[in-house]
Design brief:
By secondary structure, the protein is an alpha+beta fold. Helices cover 29% and strands 20% of the residues. A hairpin with a 4-residue loop joins β13 and β14.
């Protein structure tokens, strides 16, 4: 594949980055390039320790490849992601084994390639971030269970391991938290040992805003829920704008770092699309800022048995009217919830329901006609859910399946990929691709002010400017053109020291990862090559130089946010045993 038009900038940025790595990474980089080594070299000029050199040689021989292997790293235009991709590219290419180029793509093009049905045959190394949640299953099932390979979900390289599948399934069918913790530690270690991906960093969710413009802002640790803080009465959270805001009265102006790829919840596979509609659509439940499940469209949940639940919905919940189609809105009923959940079957987001309702096995190339569990409408506001088996994370994940009107069916008038229609506190007002996404308050939202949040949305308009460059987002924030933005990692400490700005942060529910093309015709078919490549990744150096020390080196899949299922000691042990950077020896 030819390099894209930005390759000269990539090379220039790489040189600057390597200079900036300084003490955190220079020793290892110099060692790789034969400019000094780390004291463990084998004397042949590679700078690699003998065992690492041998592991790579054995792996290449096993996979049937001569050196150097000419390959490709692909990433979207996220600047930090590009930078750590450059670091890894430099490390790999400094050995005698690799000759790899780096290519950047616009987000929607990139997602289309990464999540393509034939992604297992793509020979590119993929740089990607994963946003998960509060339950450990969210970190590993969609990426590593064999049922979740693309296009069903996000197992990009079609990784398959029966033992790991069994552990993942056991983790969701076990309710005792100590037993679940043991199961997920076993699953994590098996994944790390097999190394279908290299975990790079647990990040932090960070928001910076102008102190005189925004009040009451809280940072949600899951990236897809970034803008819940605008107005989330179910979580007891809301924000307000003050007189110095960038927009009109009661208007918040914030930013997206990429364009909105899809507004249909069953087809959303990128974070920006999810965050663009998380004030438009709602689920029956949500998880608040403290990790506690809360009622949203449901007002009550009765657990009848280990596998049976009964939801009682709020009465009087209204759908938004449509500006594009013949739909004036109406009251939500249990039929809409049943329709919405069944609608996920056979889509790219099938797992949002299939994980707990079950998807039966079907012949290759065919789709299931129904889920294994049953959904029974017992009245306008009552829905009984019978699961095929115990599903421990149910209350944490049932709200991921968002509720839409049944008029969005195949024979209905609504097209959610053109116009999102939900029950949320905001409705879509304007969308200019690559430029602007604007929401306005929905006057008929169901919340009546019975809690600590006001009944009417204090922010009437939420406008999001689409600004792909982090430096441009920071400039817009400093210039008063926007009220709130996600700043470049290297600017966080400076913003924290300036009284004009406030910065809020939380450890993130997710990680950055480097995906190996282990099922394509590449040297990464060999486990030895994958494990050796892990040791060529300077995670502490990347955290220091690329992210200005923000975040934590990641060696295992479950973020510290899900602290009951992992620990700092476990993460470090996974690094020491499987992914220790050779330059740190």
């Amino acid at each position: 594949m030819a390099r894209n038009d930005s390759q000269d900038n990539v090379n220039q940025n790489r040189r600057r980055l390597l200079q900036a790595m300084g003490a955190a990474g220079a020793a290892g980089l110099a060692g790789c390039s034969g400019l000094g080594g780390n004291g463990n070299g084998n004397g042949d000029g590679s700078g690699l320790p003998d065992d690492l050199q041998q592991q790579l040689s054995d792996g290449f021989e096993e996979a049937g490849f001569e050196t150097p292997w000419e390959g490709e790293i692909i990433t979207n235009e996220n600047p930090e992601r590009v930078q750590w991709a450059q670091v890894i590219q430099e490390e790999l290419n400094a050995t005698e084994f690799f000759d790899i180029e780096l290519n950047q793509f616009e987000w929607t093009t990139y997602v289309g390639r990464v999540l393509a049905e034939d992604s297992a045959e793509d020979e590119a190394l993929v740089c990607l971030g994963w946003s998960a949640g509060w339950d450990p299953d969210a970190y590993i099932r969609n990426l590593f269970h064999s049922d979740q390979h693309t296009p069903a979900c996000c197992n990009v390289n079609h990784f398959s391991d029966e033992e790991i599948d069994t552990l993942i399934d056991e983790g969701t069918s076990t309710t005792d938290i100590d037993e679940r913790a043991d199961i997920y530690q076993d699953a994590q270690e098996s994944i790390v040992e097999s190394s279908p991906v290299a975990f790079i960093r647990y990040g932090e969710e960070i928001d910076a805003f102008r102190s005189a413009a925004v009040e009451g802002w809280q940072t949600y640790p899951i990236n897809g829920g970034k803008y819940y803080s605008v107005y989330a009465p179910w979580a007891g959270v809301h924000a307000e704008v003050m007189g110095d805001n960038a927009g009109d009265e009661n208007e918040l102006i914030a930013t997206f770092s990429a364009d909105v790829a899809n507004t249909d919840p069953t087809e959303q596979n990128d974070t920006t699309s999810t965050m663009s509609t998380n004030l438009v659509y709602e689920g029956v439940m949500g998880v608040d800022y403290n990790g506690e499940p809360q009622m949203m469209l449901a007002e009550d949940l009765e657990q009848v048995s280990e596998t049976e639940y009964v939801f009682t919905l709020r009465e009087g919940v209204q759908f938004h009217p449509s500006q594009e189609f013949d739909f004036d809105g109406r009251e939500l009923t249990a039929e809409d919830v049943k329709f919405s959940w069944e609608r996920y079957l056979g889509t790219t987001r099938e797992a949002d329901v299939g994980d707990w309702l079950g998807v039966p096995d079907t012949p290759e190339g065919e789709s299931a006609d129904s889920f294994e569990g049953t959904l029974t409408v017992e009245g306008d506001y009552t829905l009984r859910v019978e699961l095929p088996e115990v599903y421990a994370p149910f209350q944490f994940t049932v709200g991921d399946a968002l509720i839409v009107p049944r008029e969005a069916g195949e024979d209905g008038p609504l097209d959610l990929s053109t116009e999102p229609i939900g029950t949320g506190p905001y409705r879509l007002d304007q969308y200019d691709p690559d430029e602007l996404w604007r929401l306005t308050a929905f006057d008929d939202h169901w919340y009546d002010g019975s809690g600590d949040v006001p009944a009417d949305q204090p922010i009437e308009t939420a406008t999001f400017r689409i600004i792909t460059e982090s430096s441009a987002r920071e400039a817009a924030l400093r210039g008063g053109d926007v009220d709130l933005a996600q700043p470049p990692q290297g600017s966080v400490s400076a913003l924290q020291e300036e009284s004009d700005f406030s910065v809020t942060s939380r450890i993130a529910g997710g990680f950055d990862m480097f995906i190996y093309p282990m099922n394509a015709d590449t040297p990464f078919q060999s486990q030895d090559v994958r494990l050796a490549a892990n040791r060529l990744i300077n995670r502490p150096g990347i955290v220091s130089a690329v992210y200005d020390g923000i975040g934590t080196p990641a060696y295992s899949p479950i973020s510290p946010l899900a602290g009951s299922f992992t620990s700092e000691e476990f993460n470090q042990r996974m690094g020491d045993e499987y992914s220790r950077y050779y330059g740190a020896e």
